[in-house]
Design goal:
The protein is of the alpha+beta class and about 170 residues long. It is built from three helices and four strands, in the order αααββββ. It is globular and about 50 Å long.
């Protein structure tokens, strides 16, 4: 009898694993629209947090852990370089969006930012990059009916090289 019960438990476990592997990860049109809206809100709030050094803009768009991670990143940047970043979201494109168990989502996207660096104390611009491209992965979770970002990973980053570089000054050498 114990052997039959053990076999039944094993078969049920295997069946649950197979069912979980066959889960439909394609979001419904409503889920997709809601998640896309949450992504847009998060990215705009992220740009504001960078530009103002105030992570409170992320509240309602990100989990406390994600807000703490952004705060640490901004603090580290300020301590290491003395710089403040002004980040302006130029655009983004969602490459893929998957929903798991109706409460977790993974969003792969390409973000395009115009980024300026300023001295935090004097406000003098130290550099500017147009169209900085970041391939990112957002982990999201449905919390109390709202999709929030629980983690953001930059998978790769590309800084475009200006096409029209000024000619080198031969007399300067």
């Amino acid at each position: 009898m114990a052997r039959l019960r053990g076999t039944t438990v094993l078969l049920m476990t295997l069946l649950l694993l197979v069912m979980a592997a066959c889960e439909d990860i394609e979001p419904t049109p409503e889920e997709r629209a809601t998640i896309e809206t949450a992504v847009r809100g998060y990215l705009h709030a992220l740009g504001e947090a960078y530009s103002t050094l105030d992570t409170s803009a992320l509240e309602g768009y990100a989990s406390p852990n994600e807000i703490a991670a952004v705060h640490k990143l901004l603090k580290d940047l300020l301590q290491k370089t003395g710089d403040r970043i002004d980040a302006d979201l130029v655009g983004y494109e969602i490459q893929s969006l998957s929903v798991f168990r109706s409460i977790n989502a993974t969003v792969r996207l390409v973000e395009v930012w115009d980024i300026s660096r300023y001295g935090a104390t004097d406000g003098i611009e130290k550099g500017h990059t147009d169209n900085s491209i970041q391939n990112t992965l957002l982990q999201m979770r449905l919390v109390e009916g709202e999709w929030i970002v629980v983690g953001r990973s930059i998978m790769s980053q590309e800084t475009p090289v200006p096409e029209d570089l000024p000619p080198e000054d031969e007399d300067a050498a």
